[in-house]
Amino acid sequence: MACEKWLVGGKPCFVMMVDSYKIRAAGKEFYFDFHSFTGPQMVGKRGKPIHTFPPQKSPFWDALFWWIKQGKQVDADGWCVFKWEMKPVNILKHLGGRNYMVLA
After folding, report:
1. In a structure prediction context, what are the per-residue pLDDT tens digits for the chain, which is 104 residues long?
2. Is 84:27 a contact under the CB 8 Å cutoff?
3. Contact by Cβ (8 Å): 25, 59
4. Which of the 8 DSSP states describes residue 79?
5. Residue 82 in contact with residue 63, Cβ under 8 Å?
6. CA distance 36 to 85
């Protein structure tokens, strides 16, 4: 992440530039910028911001989860590197009504 000096209205302004990433999930390619405070911002192939996000059940979110959890590694071509893993699933015991106990 770099900080660049820009002139805004003739006055200096420092702007944090975020890195752009590419990730593959379920045969699709997703392009995004990532900032540790704000999370992902979707961009097009040329880096122009897109103001829509993939749907909640999109494979992008699982891929992003594992990429972040595994240390945000990127290969020489700029593609995110991660291994798909199974998300842990809680085993629940129903105690009655809305009450459950987590067994594992």
Report:
1. 456 677 888 888 776 666 789 999 999 999 998 887 888 889 888 878 888 999 999 999 999 999 999 999 999 888 999 998 877 778 889 999 999 998 87
2. no
3. yes
4. B
5. yes
6. 23
